[in-house]
Amino acid sequence: MRYQLPHTRPGQVVGLLGGSFDPPHQGHVHISREALRRFGLDQVWWLVSPGNPLKARGPAPLADRMAACRAMLDHPRMFVSDFEAQAGTRFTAESLCVLQRARPKVQFVWLMGADNLAQLDQWQDWRDIVERVPLGVLARPGQRISARVSKAARVYRFARLKGAKSRLLGQAEAPAWCFVNVPMRGISSTELREAGDWRRNVNN
């Protein structure tokens, strides 16, 4: 099956930042720029999910979130994709499997904040994720310690790449992960949702 995906060349390294982006904010842009630089990535894709299986309440309509993401991203190597909606996948492990089949000559790196590493063992088939693609973990406010002592970090401590070698992550064979401390912005999508109807700003 053919999917609408950003153009890539064989051998390129693409970082994947998945989430509901409900709504997207400058914190997402910030960690994407840091990931490009720190992990030696050729591109970063925002994979905007139809919904988050870990959240009971559904997000805003996908079309609204995609539009907000595109309005926010202004970088020649960053792209927005609704791949999970196209592929009909619900969980990250499943999405990665299908995506690797669609682009077998591209090396993918899964990007996440330290808070996600702290709860990674709650994700569906989380070990398959770790053993399928390298993980680039970017520190977020207040989550450094919990991430480093998390179950995923302990189980795969042998696969950790030192921060000084972070640019080698994209060429590493999974399982491999690297934790980098970066200046972070504390803004969250939850705070923006509670502040008001962000979709009005996108549509106007």
Describe, in plain words, how this protein is organized in 3D.
With 204 residues, this protein is of the alpha/beta class. The chain is built from ten helices and seven strands. A seven-stranded parallel sheet has the order 3-2-1-4-5-7-6. Helix 4 (92-102) packs parallel to helix 6. The protein is globular, with a radius of gyration of 16 Å.
The description of the largest β-sheet is:
7 strands, parallel
DSSP helix fraction = 25-40%
Which geometry do the CA atoms define? globular
How are helices and strands ordered from N to C?
EHEHEHHEHHEHHEEHH
Beta-sheet strand percentage? 15-25%
Supply Rg.
16 Å
- Which secondary-structure class do the elements indicate? alpha/beta
Reconstruct the topology from this structure.
Blueprint: E1 13-19, H1 26-38, E2 43-48, H2 62-72, E3 78-81, H3 83-87, H4 92-102, E4 107-113, H5 114-118, H6 126-132, E5 135-138, H7 144-148, H8 151-155, E6 160-161, E7 177-180, H9 189-195, H10 198-203
Parallel strand pairs: 1-2, 1-4, 2-3, 4-5, 5-7, 6-7
What key phrases describe this protein's structure?
single chain; 204 residues; alpha/beta; 7-stranded parallel β-sheet; 10 helices; 7 strands
Short description:
The chain is α/β, with parallel strands linked by helices. The protein has helices spanning 26-38, 62-72, 83-87, 92-102, 114-118, 126-132, 144-148, 151-155, 189-195, 198-203, and strands at 13-19, 43-48, 78-81, 107-113, 135-138, 160-161, 177-180.
